[in-house]
Specification:
- This protein has a single domain, classed as Porin.
- About 23% of the residues have low confidence.
- The strands form two sheets. Strands 4-5-6-9-10-13-14-17-18-19-20-21 form a twelve-stranded antiparallel barrel. It has a six-stranded antiparallel sheet with strand order 3-2-16-15-12-11, with no helix packed on it.
- The protein contains two helices and 21 strands.
- The longest helix is centred in the first third of the chain and has 18 residues.
- The protein is mainly beta and 411 residues long.
- The two termini are 45 Å apart.
Length: 411
């Protein structure tokens, strides 16, 4: 598929997401009690109804049966944490918990470089770096990158995040490397729940970011900072957009002859769409770009004059990560929910996801399609635990299999 075709498909899906809230899916008009929509233009105003009324009108459950509701405070709850109800419950802006996507991606190790301001070339995870080194020569590549669909919900929500990923047989070396990645993080809502800011710091036991070839080395990845804005919040349909920044917190690559300094900042705009036709089913769609803003400088050590032992540094290259396009779709269904309980298992759902990742740079025929199947359990009204497995569907792959475990603690 050509670059033009890839971008056309991606932009077509993005346009679909932008138009989705305006009635692409039938069913917005129902015989239930009408609930006035909340949009970006009412961010400074008050919600047209209390969270309990909003939830009650769409589910048929009375307000008095909702845990923590007392009907007397300004928002109808004794504490902020009681705004979240197990099994698809809502925050003041209608955000359902327990419906986060799992994700699929590992990424890294593919890019291009510029030599002496003139020549352009590419390299891949199998090696062929300008001087020496393979995928590990791109700072943060051995830990992998995080895209927006990883344990993500289009709705802003207050939560603590912890993700575990086991990637089996990644092509970081010719023999393959198993990677254990851990990603703690936090998301905090702003502006009355219409926006949120999120921070994640990935780390992993993986291939060392030097020339030692150690495959169980502890490495920090590049920190992810995400700003999310809720654009449309209807009873069944929600649309949000935002920007993620991958900040250079991973180690530099250093060997006897080369040093790659981690200076690159990735700009990753996204749009997300969520649709809930009824209380059982939910679906989500995502579109995101990933652009390396400034690249990483490469320094080579040479002897001048040759054979003298006098080592000098030559700033010769600037290495850029590839520009990626991500498209993801998810469909899920609730199997069990009990909104009257405050402890124990109060909700459980299953979901299936399809993820397409492609490189937009010329000279790279890179299209990866992965499928993820998982289940998520809700405990009480503040904790969700998800387990999923991801398999590649294309010959081009970044791993042979992946186990994902996600934990969210809402507050």
């Amino acid at each position: 598929m050509t670059i033009t075709a890839r971008m056309f498909v991606g932009f077509a899906i993005g346009a679909f997401l932008l138009c989705g809230y305006s009635g692409i899916f039938a069913g917005e008009q129902t015989k239930q009690t009408e609930t006035k929509e909340v949009s970006l233009f009412t961010i400074l105003g008050q919600s047209p109804c209390t969270p309990a009324q909003r939830w009650s009108s769409s589910t048929g459950v009375s307000e008095s049966s909702i845990p923590g509701f007392n009907g007397s405070s300004s928002n109808g709850y004794r504490t902020d944490s009681q705004r979240l109800f197990a099994g698809g419950s809502v925050t003041p802006r209608g955000a359902a918990i327990g419906m986060e996507t799992f994700g699929d991606f590992f990424g890294g190790g593919i890019g291009w470089y510029k030599e002496d301001g003139e020549r352009w070339a590419s390299y891949g995870a199998s090696g062929a770096f300008p001087s020496e080194g393979g995928a590990e020569a791109l700072p943060g590549a051995t830990v992998g990158r995080i895209k927006i669909v990883e344990n993500f919900n289009p709705m802003p929500v207050d939560r603590l995040i912890f993700d575990y990923n086991f990637f089996y047989n990644t092509p970081l070396t010719e023999e393959g490397v198993n990677v254990n990645r851990f990603t703690p993080g936090i998301e905090k809502t702003l502006f009355g729940g219409m926006s949120s800011i999120e921070v994640r710091l990935p780390m992993a036991f993986t291939l060392a970011s030097d020339d030692s070839e150690r495959i169980d080395h502890y490495e920090f990845g590049n920190m992810m900072l995400t700003f999310k804005q809720l654009l449309v919040d209807r009873r069944k349909t929600s649309v949000s957009a935002g920007l993620s920044l991958a900040l250079p917190t991973a180690r530099n690559f250093v060997s006897d002859d080369i040093r790659v300094e981690n200076k690159s900042v990735h700009y990753m705009p996204f749009i997300a769409f969520q649709y809930k036709p009824n209380r059982e089913w939910f679906t989500q769609l995502y579109y995101q770009l990933d652009v390396d803003g400034n690249g990483n400088p490469v320094f080579e050590y040479t002897e001048n004059p040759p054979g003298s032992g006098n080592r000098v540094v030559d700033d010769k290259y600037r290495v850029y990560d590839a520009t990626y396009q991500y498209v993801s779709a998810s469909v899920g269904r609730w199997l069990y929910r009990d909104n009257t309980r405050r402890q124990g298992l109060t909700g459980m759902n299953v979901s299936g996801e399809v993820h397409w990742s492609t490189i937009l740079n010329r000279g790279h025929d890179f299209d990866v399609v992965n499928a993820t199947v998982g289940t998520r359990m809700i405990f009480g009204h503040r904790t969700s635990l998800g387990v999923a497995y991801c398999v590649p569907l294309t010959q081009t792959r970044q791993f042979d299999g992946e186990l994902r475990i996600t934990l969210n603690r809402y507050f």
